[in-house]
Amino acid sequence: MILSKMFAVADKEMRQARRDPITLGMLIGMPALFLLLYGYALNFDVRHVPLAVMDLDKTARSRALVASFVNSTFFDQVADLPAGADVERIAERREAKAILVIPNGYAADLDSGRKSPLQLLVDGADAQTATTLLGYANALVGEENISLVEQRTGRIDPPIEFRPRVWYNPELRSTNFLVPGLIGFILMLTAVLSTAISIVREKERGTMEQLRVTPLGPTQLVTGKTLPYLAISLIAATVILVAARVLFGIEIQGSYLDLFIATLVYLIGALGFGLLVSSLVDTQAMAFQAGTLLSMLPAIFLSGFIFPIHSMPAVLQAITYAVPARYFLIILRGVILKGAPLTVYWKPFLLLTLYSNLVFIFAWLRLTRKEA
User: Fold this and answer.
1) Domain definitions of the chain by residue range
2) 49-153, what's its fold?
3) Which of 27, 162, 192, 313 could bridge across to 291 with cysteines, CB 3.0–4.6 Å?
């Protein structure tokens, strides 16, 4: 009897969702659209940076150095500057983000065994890109130095044989790092907004008062209102994972069951948070604003999605323990990229489960008190 009432509410909610195809399409289709937009827009890979070259030497050796920069795909030569060119003006107008200056006598100095100065001017307005460019340039010049030593001595026998190897993401694609974070962010946002707006819509239309006078208990009402959106969110999660495979080539290396269990627990917490938001506001506009603010910002800035948690101030690091996306992100990257079982991440999974239960219970208590 109790289950039949609960499923009756769920059926009523699902019928109402089907009558609103725009909202239903947004709940299922918008996550994939978000993934498409953010997945291509957010990219930390630094390649094809505009490079201006002031080659004052004009020799085969100087041209070979420029070619090594261009052939690396990190730089694209966009200008060949004459002597005396205003490099500061070029940087100010963003015509180039890096300017390579090769002095006159570069080849002659190297051929005679002398050191030759080489200058790279980098636009430091974007500190992260500038740091990356300096690392690329140091590596390229280092390779050129090794080549010169080898030409002079005939052999190179370094005392340390360095053999780096990158696991899980050999190509160092930032997309592989960002897409799991996008999944957690998008699911949190859509799940919170769907339940928050659903409950508040009943308040605005006055139908919540009608539901209160029915034989439904608060538990049956809350669970019945949540189940359809849990099913819709799981479908949206499937759509996102398929889109990630098709658009970005990200395959799930681990167990689908582990991924489903973690996603289910995460969505329960997100839906519970949406219910909690609905108990605090009375209009759909306020529900949308509060749900977006309280779910989106922590999922982006305090989950480790973009900014490393260990580099944050101690106060913010403490706050991140209350952000469920932090734990879900660890599990997602482990299961999807590393193929690790869920048991390896038992601690973040336990904390995620604890969060989901606590927020759902707190939301139930709030709504039950309002019902009373």
Assistant:
1) 2-43+173-371, 49-153
2) abc type-2 transporter like fold (3.40.1710)
3) 192
